[in-house]
Amino acid sequence: VQLVESGGGSVQAGESLALSCAVFGDTQSARCMAWFRQAPGKEREGVAAIAGDGRTDYADSVKGRFTISRDDAKATVYLQMNNLKTEDTARYYCVAALQIWGQGTQVTVS
């Protein structure tokens, strides 16, 4: 399985960004998908997760602002990020089955 993230960028606080994660390969092994992030000097943290049945879970810091979703027909997972804060600045990684990591995409909020 290979994961390719896109959609990162630089925005002002309060604005929105949408990240995408395209899944290539054995998509059946990528039923549980998640987004993690890592800011400079900080530990990597889980942001949001979505199970194969669509159940979702979020870090407290992003609840009400971020939404994770999936389109299995397109083998793509999304992370809609609204009302971004400076503390959301980090490199965001798509993760499949908590084992396979993408290269990440940078999100910078100023």
Main attributes of the structure:
mainly beta; 110 residues; 0% helix; seven-stranded mixed β-sheet; four-stranded antiparallel β-sheet; single chain
Short summary of the structure?
The protein is mainly beta. Helix content is 0%, strand content 52%.
Tell me what the structure shows.
By secondary structure, this protein is mostly beta strands. Helix content is 0%, strand content 52%. It contains no helices and eleven strands. The strands form two sheets. Strands 2, 4, 5, 6, 9, 10 and 11 form a seven-stranded mixed β-sheet that branches. The protein has a four-stranded antiparallel β-sheet with strand order 1-3-8-7, with no helix packed on it. Strand 4 (33-38) and strand 5 (45-50) form a beta hairpin. It is globular and about 40 Å long. It starts with a strand and ends with a strand. The model has no long low-confidence stretch (mean pLDDT 95).
Biggest sheet record: 7 strands, mixed
What Rg do the Cα atoms give? 13 Å
Write down how many β-strands occur, each being a DSSP E stretch of 2 or more residues. Answer: 11
Total number of helical segments? 0
Mean pLDDT: 95
Itemize the secondary structure elements and their pairings:
Elements: E1 2-6, E2 9-11, E3 17-24, E4 33-38, E5 45-50, E6 56-58, E7 66-71, E8 76-81, E9 90-96, E10 100-101, E11 105-109
Parallel strand pairs: 2-11
Antiparallel strand pairs: 1-3, 3-8, 4-5, 4-9, 5-6, 7-8, 9-10, 9-11
